Amino acid sequence: MSQSLCGSADPVEVTELLDLDAVNIRADYAKTWKDKQTYIDEWGIEKRLTGDILPATMGHPITNIADQKDYVFPKVDTPERFKTLERAVKKYGDYRGVVLNLRDGFSDMRDILGYQNALMNMVTDKQHFLDLLKRVVDYNLALAELAVKRFGIQVIATTDDVCMATGPIISPKVYAATIYPLFKDVIQGYRSLGLIVIKHCDGDIRPFLDLWLEAGIQCLDPIDPGAKLDMGEMKTKYGNQICLKGNIDCTGNLCNGTPEQVAEEVRVCIEKGGPGGLILSSSNTIHCGVKPENYRAMLGALRKYGSKL
Fold first, then answer.
1. Is this prediction's pTM over 0.90?
2. How far apart are CA 139 and CA 76, in angstroms?
């Protein structure tokens, strides 16, 4: 998508070419290519390029959770781990935001074990699941601590999805008993480093939101219109507690509408979510189905109506 918009797929370059306020950077992990489309990363996760923005996950390093004790995580402190982050910080200094994208638990478990095993193991083999989840939390905290010390990072965005448009993929009761205690630990760990924490999860997150607020998140992303979350209602209920991020529908007007319809959606979102406490963005990834002219219309409308933020 970024290639169509501005001729580059590099997030640091794209941020400047589109004049965005901030860039979201992940840690860098080396890839070993099996063929032109398929690679295995440092986690031992096999992925295949699909032509969309995210590759498809084809294989996972742990098939039996009892083997988790022998699983070796990628090293935190390698010369290449924060290569892209370092470039962004050096390039943008204080005039654009640089956000470090990490995890808060479940998505790493999903990638290491596979979706089915991750969901089953938290019930059928809870102790091994919790032992691995604790290692995941500690690993992400170690990455965050290093990024703060080396580059002065001030904002973390976590990308852990536990919901669909119709509701949670995990029973709220199981989540509260299994994942939440360590979720709270990692959020509090980020906060203790002086970081502002943006919690990402699209879908209908309402069954979990009170727990996330209790844990200490400071921003919620993306207020998903596909899950019938209304920015005005969320602003009224939660706007005095946290910042809200979103919610221009990346499955609606950005794909199928006109630039004028996108601009109107932006205007309404700002009217409902402002003033203050709103970061306007799409409702999820800018994928290949988004029309470039509509994404540009979103940015143009943001600049036009953004004074109300």
1. yes
2. 7
